[in-house]
């Protein structure tokens, strides 16, 4: 199973919306807060690929879960019409 990774400010797709990220030696410093950059708690952290998830998780490392839906689940219950819509379409229920 693939481990979920946290986004880091050293990623090439990471950007700061305030342009406050400054790269110092081995750390990324935020001029806005005056502290090291924390992607999980920053409001202005963003990803160029739009893969940044809440709590600073990188969406590139998350595997999708897909489910198959039967035709009954997709269609749903019929919609009952009244008034002008009923006169235009001519049917009482639409699927």
Keywords summarizing the entry:
single chain, 95 residues, alpha+beta, three-stranded antiparallel sheet, 2 helices, elongated
Total domain units = 1
- The rounded distance between the terminal residues' Cα atoms is 41 Å
Q: How large is the share of residues in beta strands? A: 25-35%
Helical stretch count?
A: 2
Helicity range of the residues? Answer: 10-25%
What general form does the structure show?
elongated
Structural class, from secondary structure content? alpha+beta
Radius of gyration: 24 Å
The largest sheet is:
3 strands, antiparallel
Regarding quaternary structure, what we see is single chain
- Determine the mean pLDDT: 81
**Count of distinct strands:** 9
Kindly report the spatial arrangement of strands forming the biggest sheet: 2-3-4
- N-to-C series of helices and strands: EEEEEEEHEHE
Low-confidence stretches: none
Walk me through the topology:
Blueprint lengths: L13 E3 L4 E4 L2 E4 L4 E2 L8 E3 L4 E2 L3 E2 L12 H5 L3 E2 L2 H7 L3 E2 L1
Describe the structure.
- The model has no long low-confidence stretch (mean pLDDT 81).
- The chain contains two helices and nine strands; from the N terminus they run E-E-E-E-E-E-E-H-E-H-E.
- It is α+β, with helices and mostly antiparallel strands.
- The strands form four sheets. Strands 2-3-4 form a three-stranded antiparallel beta sheet, with no helix packed on it.
- The protein is elongated and about 70 Å long.
- It has one domain (14-94).
- The two termini are 41 Å apart.
- 13% of the residues lie in helices and 25% in strands.
- It has helices spanning 71-75, 83-89; strands spanning 14-16, 21-24, 27-30, 35-36, 45-47, 52-53, 57-58, 79-80, 93-94.
- The longest helix has 7 residues, at 83-89.
